[in-house]
Specification:
single chain; alpha+beta; 3-stranded antiparallel sheet; two-stranded antiparallel sheet
Length: 105
């Protein structure tokens, strides 16, 4: 079972990348990431990819107004299992590009 203590232990002993790997192991999704606000952008500071590929260019910096994070901050959580079919995201440029998204602030 993942507890706050186990997360703190992984972070203390392995750093942020190891923590992302640990978190990603518990979900079927390809990416697990941390973003930082920088003016009107969200900048990726750490990313784990199950396929071990280089971080995709489109995930380096995301305009906040187009990000799914705007909904996280508004609602305190946001989840879509398939953005292609999620009407809340109609017109968003990342709809269908990022398929599954689960986040908390």
């Amino acid at each position: 079972m993942r507890t706050l203590e186990s997360l703190q232990d992984v972070l203390s002993n392995g750093g942020p990348n190891e923590l992302l790997s640990y978190l990603n192991a518990g979900v079927p999704h390809r990416y697990t990431a941390i973003y930082r606000f920088e003016d009107d952008l969200l900048r990726n500071v750490a990313l784990f990819d199950k396929r071990g590929k280089v971080r995709p260019e489109f995930l380096l910096a995301v305009p906040f107004k187009h990000s799914f994070c705007q909904f996280v901050l508004r609602d305190q959580a946001f989840r879509t299992d398939d953005s292609r079919q999620d009407k809340r995201l109609d017109g968003n440029p990342y709809q269908g590009l990022v398929i599954s998204y689960h986040s908390v602030p």
